Amino acid sequence: MSGTLQSQYLEMDLLRLTTAGSVDDGKSTLIGRLLYDSKSIFEDQLESIQRSSQQRGEGNINLALLTDGLRAEREQGITIDVAYRYFATPKRKFIISDTPGHVQYTRNMVTGASTANLAIVLVDARHGVIEQTCRHASIASLLELPHLVLCINKMDLVDYQEEVFENIKKEFENFAAKLDIPDIHYIPISALRGDNVVEKSENMPWYQGGTLLYTLENVHIGSDYNHIDSRFPVQYVIRPQSDQYHDYRGYAGRVEGGIFRPGDEVIALPSGFSTRIKSIDTMDGPVEEAFAPMSVTFTLEDDIDISRGDMIVKPANQPQVAQDIELMVCWLNEAPLVPGGKYALKHTTKEARCVVKEVRYKLDITSLSRLEDGATLALNDIGRIKIRTTSPLFFDSYRKNRGTGSLILVNEFTNETVGAGMII
Ligand SMILES: Nc1nc2c(ncn2[C@@H]2O[C@H](COP(=O)(O)OP(=O)(O)OP(=O)(O)O)[C@@H](O)[C@H]2O)c(=O)[nH]1
């Protein structure tokens, strides 16, 4: 395998995960434990945690300090409260998005989960499934996260009893039957003591499943991407100024679905002109195929007019094209969404403007049932709306493709992201 292909395959084996739980369920401790036991903490961080734990007179090192320290760093100047942490084991790379429990509104969870493959939802073994658990699972389902791991934490506080675990598992299974999450795992853990996080617990011999790290390393993510519907939103047109490359014209972007190969017949939207792919280039040289989520540059046989925001697709499999669009939107702003409201819109690499024609209904996020009082959407509300855009979008349903099926609404004056939408 060439160096490039190898690095792209590695790129695919990247698991993006998000953590959710209510205050004090132990998220920070769990992430700290995961990093510590999998030896993903850097020496200098470890020393500084040891020092502060000693200063606080704590016998063990306090793993929550690791996450909390990193949180404090990023709390300067970032409006949406989500931190991204990176770690790797020999098997896989991971990016964790983490949001603090006390301010864990839907907004944060949606932001953290929108690009994730997997959600870890934590419950406290003493409290079992609570409303927050249902809320988090519903959001994971709505965002079509393919994998969910329910970690039943603080098992040490319930004497590691199998019965406690089984009851919580059953309760969650009953609730999750209404949701749309294809792959759910249940793991009894103690984040504080390290049971079943990285090391298998000796305190729970009755549990035959994998540890959390084992599960994260082994969930099958290859089919989380759409490999059927070929979509390539153009991000940049590359035309080098130097004489050596004066003929070169490339279209750079990220593959959002399907597979492209040199020689493939393609058409450019919105123009509809067709041509063939001449080459697929990367930083490390040309490749023989490109699939989601690779970032590549296409060169084409013919010189057709393509600019940023256009989309390269296959003639036999085209996205929908429309200006009237229905979506589920999670509202992220203090100022409510109202019918008639005008917003800027970002969809793949395309920018447009839109007006909200109608708020059809609001969702009860705990049960995903419809609420009728849906004239406006307030901060953290999720509802179904209709918009009309100033120019046509090329899109798929979110269900089919999380990349070409999602968009964000932006306040044109403040540039704040005010809504995250999933096209129906
Ligand atoms: N006994 C026991 N205590 C735990 C366990 N996991 C976490 N704790 C304790 O629970 C408390 C809350 O843990 P945190 O990790 O700070 O909780 P959190 O969910 O991250 O809270 P936020 O940081 O506010 O989001 C701390 O006192 C932890 O030591 C566990 O497995 N067993």
Beta-strand content bin: 25-35%
At CATH level 2, the architecture of the largest domain is 3-Layer(aba) Sandwich
- What is the CATH homology-level superfamily of the largest domain? P-loop containing nucleotide triphosphate hydrolases
Radius of gyration: 23 Å
Oligomer: single chain
Low-pLDDT residue spans: 1-10, 69-80
Q: What is the CATH domain class of the largest domain?
A: Alpha Beta
Order of helices and strands: HEHHHEEHEHEHEHEEEEEEEEEEEEEEEE
Q: Helical percent range?
A: 10-25%
- How many β-strand runs? 22
Structural class: alpha+beta
Bound small molecules, by name, code or SMILES, are: guanosine-5'-triphosphate
Major sheet summary line? 6 strands, mixed
Number of helices: 8
Q: Structurally, how many domains make up the residues?
A: 3
What's the CATH topology label of the largest domain?
A: Rossmann fold
* Global mean pLDDT: 85
Q: Give the termini separation.
A: 39 Å
For the largest beta sheet, what order do the strands appear in spatially? 2-3-1-4-5-6
Keywords: ATP-binding, GTP-binding, Nucleotide-binding, Nucleotidyltransferase, Transferase
Pfam families: GTP-eEF1A_C, GTP_EFTU
Organism: Nitrosococcus halophilus (strain Nc4)
Protein name: sulfate adenylyltransferase
